[in-house]
Design goal:
36% of the residues lie in helices and 24% in strands. It has an eight-stranded antiparallel sheet. A seven-stranded antiparallel sheet has the order 5-6-7-8-12-13-14. Strands 19-18-20-21-22 form a five-stranded parallel sheet, with helices on both faces. Helix 1 packs antiparallel against helix 2, helix 8 runs antiparallel to helix 14 and helix 15 crosses helix 18. The structure holds 5-amino-5-deoxy-1-O-phosphono-D-mannitol.
Length: 606
């Protein structure tokens, strides 16, 4: 999604704005721009594509202003062209925007009727014209923005600077997050604290409906009604070193390799290893009393939730409903008051997941979020928040966040099983011991990475790839297909192995690789039967398993052997081969692995 930065500086800011934008690249974007104020006059540079194109523009025609805003755009309204790139400007005002202005059509008609000339197809440009109209009517910038905000519908974040006002920036937040940073005689603005980490670790977050008048001396925050409000100033944990890929070629590779460590950190947060017990923070409900559990999330986070459904049903005998948040939010699902609703989100800002959370609060559910960003909106609006300790995930394809989500969900399922009398103390110790071994097993998979480079060659030639899994491996098949399609652009689908003969088997021939996730668990023999159906139709099977050579009893193109682990932890372990398959196939195909086309890291629009 779009990224916003702003600086009220003591020296030229254009280069620093671009550096801050680089730290937001992970969110996904297709054009970029900066505007600064020099001798009272606004000027801007914009470019299609990557930030180096913008840097080239700035090198040809530098901007010298000490006050500036910058933007990476993920196109929603209008193609990703230079014309549609932000900042949008009139002589009086320059604006960058993240989100969607839902009533932009009627506003555009209104403004066009009054003679405003629009240069772009974007929804954002109406904001620049609305503010300009207010300024021309004689209002000062603060009143002009206040009047404009009252006209805007939708979810958005804004940063605005004004011709003739060198010491002024106004920011507004309605739905999309904004962090304000404090420096020595300077002030900063960013879509998140990561963007601001090289400048400051002293941060204040705007709340929904807030707008802030920022000068070099500080800021004044007002709420939706225009009333002055105080927001806490806190120390951010975002690190200035975050954009470092280490020795890895891509952030995704680095993040895959970080998994043993971040899973250990996450586990240590929820487990007393010495006692062999799960230790959760105080939760405002008792698992024993819950009528049911509702899980809502999007994409990979939803697949983590689907794995958890198997765990909660098997170990806690708790009825679980799971749905993707974009569907759940509009279903008007009846929910018995007092139930538990779980929301899983790496970013903690996903618009559909947030809407599902708000619906569940209205339905008197206890709401718990599992998020990777503690200061996020979903975290703050939940009754309780359980953090994943994955560290910032920069690659658009979620990897370490997924396995850390599974780690927290596994601990939660054990706690639920214990509270509901279905997991004994010795079983709890056994399951925790199994979780403790996960980092070691993943390290051993990562040592065998070279074999995924070999497997990538036949996969990269495929037009379609099927992933099959049964039971708790079914969500892994879905995750494997999502990973492959999002970064390699090869069409891939995940199916429950037993569903194969109800339709997808028609696709099987010698051109279609079928990746089978088949740990040697109680369902292994069933999955083997489905593999035999594939083999009988000349399908090219890639078997991911801990079974011994020959146990599958049918010809396979390749076997990825993983360590044998406790069945409970298999989803964590099998997640890694599916990540490596997707990663090496995409690398071989030469795609933009960390920022695949059309995708955004933090999906703050529905
Ligand atoms: O930030 P969230 O976890 O809420 O994001 C949910 C999905 O957008 C995300 O998992 C997406 O599917 C990833 N690109 C998958 O790799």
């Amino acid at each position: 999604m779009c990224g916003i930065v702003g600086i009220l500086g003591t020296e030229p800011v254009a280069t620093r704005l671009v550096d801050a934008l680089k730290r937001l690249e992970y969110r996904g974007y297709d054009s970029a721009g900066v505007a600064t104020l020099e001798a009272g006059r606004l000027d801007r540079r914009r470019a299609e594509g990557k930030l180096q194109n913008l840097e080239a523009r700035l090198s040809d025609a530098p901007l010298q202003g000490h006050t500036g805003i910058g933007h990476t755009r993920w196109a929603t309204h209008g193609a990703p062209t230079e014309t549609n790139a932000h900042p949008h400007m009139t002589e009086q005002v320059s604006v960058v925007h993240n989100g969607i202005i839902e009533n932009f059509r009627e506003l555009r008609e209104e403004l066009t009727g009054e003679g405003a000339a629009f240069a772009t197809e974007t929804d954002t440009e109406v904001i620049a014209h609305l503010i300009t109209r207010e300024l021309k009517a004689g209002h000062d910038p603060v009143r002009a923005v206040f009047n404009t905000l009252r006209r805007l519908e939708g979810a958005f974040a804004l940063a605005i600077i004004f011709g003739g006002y060198d010491d002024l920036m106004i920011a507004a937040r309605q739905g999309s997050p904004l962090a304000i940073g404090f420096g020595e005689g300077e002030m900063y603005l960013g879509s998140d604290a990561i963007a601001l980490a090289p400048f400051t670790d002293t941060i204040s977050y705007l709340e929904d409906g807030d707008w802030a008048v920022i000068t070099r001396d500080g800021l004044a925050v007002r709420n939706r009604e225009g009333k002055a409000v105080e927001r806490p100033v806190q120390k951010s944990v975002a690190s200035a070193l975050l954009v470092d890929k280490g020795n890895h070629r891509h952030f995704m590779a680095k993040e895959i390799h970080e998994q043993p460590e971040v899973i250990s950190h996450t586990l240590a947060n929820y487990v007393d290893f010495a006692a062999g017990r799960v230790q959760l923070p105080d939760l405002p409900f008792d698992f024993a009393d819950l009528p049911r559990l509702t899980i809502s999330a999007c994409g990979t986070a939803a697949y983590a939730g689907l794995v958890a459904k198997y765990w909660f049903e098997r170990y806690a005998r708790l009825h679980v409903e799971i749905d993707i948040a974009s569907e759940f939010r509009y279903r008007e699902a009846p929910l018995e008051p007092g139930g538990l609703a779980l929301f899983v989100s790496q970013s903690g800002e996903t618009a559909d997941t947030l809407a599902a959370l708000r619906y569940c609060r209205e339905q008197e559910q206890h709401t718990v979020s599992i998020v990777n960003v503690r200061e996020s909106t979903i975290a703050r609006e939940s009754h309780a928040m359980l953090p994943t300790l994955a560290g910032p995930e920069i690659g658009v394809a979620s990897t370490k966040a997924f396995t850390c989500q599974l780690t927290v969900l596994a601990c939660l399922a054990i706690a639920a099983g214990k509270a509901r009398g279905h997991v004994s103390e010795s079983q709890e110790a056994e399951l925790i011991a199994a979780l403790t071994e996960v980092p070691r097993h993943i390290s051993s998979i990562l040592r065998d990475e070279a074999r995924y480079e070999v497997l990538a060659h036949p996969l990269a030639k495929a037009r379609d790839v099927l992933y099959l899994g049964r039971g708790i491996s079914f969500p892994l098949a879905l995750e494997g297909a999502l990973k492959l399609k999002e970064i390699s652009y090869i069409h891939a689908e995940g199916y429950a192995a037993g569903e194969l003969k109800h339709g997808p088997i028609a696709l099987i021939d010698e051109t279609v690789p079928v990746i089978v996730i088949a740990p040697r668990d109680n369902l292994f023999d069933k999955t083997v039967s489905n593999m035999q159906e594939v083999a009988a139709r000349d399908g090219r099977i890639v078997l991911v398993t801990d079974a011994h050579e020959g146990e599958a009893g049918c010809p396979v193109m390749d076997t990825i052997r993983v360590p044998t682990a406790h069945a409970f932890t298999n989803p964590l372990i099998y997640a890694v081969p599916v990540q490596l398959i997707a990663y090496h196939t995409a690398v071989l195909m030469g795609t933009d692995v960390d920022q695949p086309r059309n995708l955004a890291k933090s999906v703050t629009v529905e």
